[in-house]
């Protein structure tokens, strides 16, 4: 059993918040792709408030942008776990990393499609 399990109530919430901030900090400082997506979000999310779209469309435009950050965090976590296991070249490691990259590609395509459908 993990020594981090068993915390309850407010202490668990504080711990989880701290771990989340640590993860965001690690992604921002260690992952160029995450920083690029943050920059994209800094540009696109405020832009949505200047577009003549409904609230639901605005929410969707923002959601797909944030989804890219989520997928990048998961992709980076997969890569870190694979690298922790072994830096040796292995077909399964390559597949895992490539699938994480493919997930990010799909989300970036989703951003382009959703923005195009709503704005065009």
Automatic annotation (TrEMBL):
- Entry annotation: catalytic residues: 72
Q: What class of enzyme is it?
A: transferase
Q: Summarize where ATP binds, as residue positions.
A: 12, 19, 31, 79, 97-98
Question: Main site of residence?
Answer: membrane
Query: Reaction catalysed?
Result: a 1,2-diacyl-sn-glycerol + ATP = a 1,2-diacyl-sn-glycero-3-phosphate + ADP + H(+)
Q: What is the membrane topology listed in the Swiss-Prot or TrEMBL record?
A: Multi-pass membrane protein
Q: How is the cofactor bound?
A: Mn(2+), Zn(2+), Cd(2+) and Co(2+) support activity to lesser extents.
List cofactor names only: Mg(2+)
- Keywords, sorted A to Z: ATP-binding, Cell inner membrane, Cell membrane, Kinase, Lipid biosynthesis, Lipid metabolism, Magnesium, Membrane, Metal-binding, Nucleotide-binding, Phospholipid biosynthesis, Phospholipid metabolism, Transferase, Transmembrane, Transmembrane helix
Q: Where in the cell is it found?
A: Cell inner membrane
| Binding of a divalent metal cation, residues | 31, 79
Its family remark reads: Belongs to the bacterial diacylglycerol kinase family.
Q: What does this protein do?
A: Catalyzes the ATP-dependent phosphorylation of sn-l,2-diacylglycerol (DAG) to phosphatidic acid. Involved in the recycling of diacylglycerol produced as a by-product during membrane-derived oligosaccharide (MDO) biosynthesis.
Q: Which protein are we looking at?
A: Diacylglycerol kinase
Instruction: Identify the species of origin.
Output: Pseudomonas weihenstephanensis
């Amino acid at each position: 059993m993990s020594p981090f399990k068993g915390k309850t109530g407010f202490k668990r919430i504080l711990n989880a918040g701290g771990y989340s901030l640590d993860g965001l900090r690690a992604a921002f400082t260690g992952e160029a792709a995450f920083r690029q997506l943050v920059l994209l979000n800094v540009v696109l999310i405020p832009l949505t408030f200047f577009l003549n779209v409904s609230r639901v469309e605005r929410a969707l435009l923002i959601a797909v942008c944030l989804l890219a950050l989520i997928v990048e965090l998961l992709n980076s976590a997969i890569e870190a776990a694979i690298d922790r296991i072994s830096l040796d070249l292995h077909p399964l490691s390559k597949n895992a990393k490539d699938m994480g990259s493919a997930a990010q590609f799909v989300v970036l395509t989703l951003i382009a499609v959703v923005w195009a459908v709503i704005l065009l």
